[in-house]
Amino acid sequence: MENATLNVQGMSCNHCVKAVEGGVGELNGVTSVKVNLNEGTVAVEYNPEKVNLAAIKEAIDDQGYEVE
């Protein structure tokens, strides 16, 4: 398993948390997603043999948030 913490712009409420955690959490190979609104970060634990960081970033982007 690998861990990554991404800086994400535009998250401001619990709806944002649910959208990001739901979108990323649906990806095959993602085992954990945790949004920190105060810091503007998304911590992800994933299996790099099943999913890559680009796909995770795209899932966040698809929810309408910008990954730095």
Automatic annotation (TrEMBL):
A Gene Ontology molecular function term of the record: copper ion binding
Recorded GO CC terms: cytoplasm
Location relative to the cell: Cytoplasm
Source domain of life: Bacteria
Assigned keywords, A-Z: Chaperone, Copper, Cytoplasm, Metal-binding
Segments forming domain HMA: 2-68
BP GO terms, sorted: copper ion transport
Pfam families tied to this protein: HMA
Chief subcellular location: cytoplasm
Descriptive protein name: Copper chaperone CopZ
Organism expressing this protein natively: Metabacillus indicus
